[in-house]
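Posting for a labmate who doesn't have an account.
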Amino acid sequence: MGFGGGNMGKMMKQVQKMQADMGKLQDQLGEMTVEATAGGGVVKIVMTGKQEVKEIALDPEILNPEEIEMVQDLLVAAFNEALRKSQELASQEMGKITGGLKVPGLF
């Protein structure tokens, strides 16, 4: 009798391929980057698809000690936008592997 052994074997191979593809994607996301700016571009943050900050660039004109709170606010805004873009990138790339299937615990 069995439970459709051929179909089960095929499904297991598909799952194994998906796992291998997701492992490769993890590596690729470390190389992919997104960029976010704030304050009209005076603050820029570059982040990988694995949510690691690679670069922070500040326009020297904003480095006025009297405006430190504004610079801090711009950094927070740029970081949060970079994080959102990075998560969106990871989700899009994962969707290519899973066909849009949401896998709990991944991204």
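Reply:
Got it, the structure tokens are right above this. The two ends are 39 Å apart (CA to CA).
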